[in-house]
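Input record (one chain):
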Amino acid sequence: MKNKEPRPVKRKLLNSYFVSTLSITLLLFLIGLLSFMIFNAKYINDYIRENIGFTIVLDEQVREVDLLRLQKLLAVQPEVKSAVYVDAVTAAQELQSELGEDFVGFLGYNPLHASIDVKLYAAYTHNDSLAVLEHKFMEFSNVQEVYYQRNLVNLINENTNKIGLVLIILGGVMLFIFIALMNNTIRLSIYSKRFIINTMQLVGATRSFIRKPFVGNSVMQGIIGAFLANIFLFALVLSFNKNFSEVYSVSAINVIAPVIVIVFLFGVFISWLSTRFAVNKFLKLRYDELFY
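The corresponding structure, as predicted from the sequence alone:
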């Protein structure tokens, strides 16, 4: 008859492997979710900033040829994301829609001038950059006034700086906790095999030979955990886009791709490093110290 005693041992090893992999997957999912939040916060911040811009009011008698030349000149500036011409009639209609009153009919004439709405790249929307650009645009010909909402810009800059600092601190603390938990999970997995490590030493196995299967197994767990965590993250993002697409849509290239890379790097590197340190620790212990 075949010996059936190894089956419970094998089952316990499989359960231990499954629990360890599941724990790593959940922790990598949390790391990916944290990375996603940080990248997404930057994406939203840039999106808000790039809706900040100037309204360049033109001279009343500006010629069409000069207008087109000015618009092209603004569009090729390295700081400018877009430059859209708004004629006086359109500007009056937009303002009338916002106010809910027909001020043109009340005044008897349209007091608004034609303008060019300039949107800037996020890097150029800070207070000092805006002041320089305001002076620069005022020197262009046929420009009567350069206007932007200074109070709104100041409020956005102050709040984004505060939110950014909070995210950095919170992200650093949470990342430290997740890495520590993942490290402890791997160390506990190695701890359960400490007598196997000692037995291999007693039969003359070298340290590198002992470490190799443990490190390889742990790195494979990290890869599997990272793969599963990325699947869960991708499903979460798809669900987010499906339910909140009218409010905000996540860019898969700009946000998801770096998060996937980060999760895989963390999964492999932390698994390799934690296992190496854990195995080295038990390699240095005497047999009687393994019981503590």
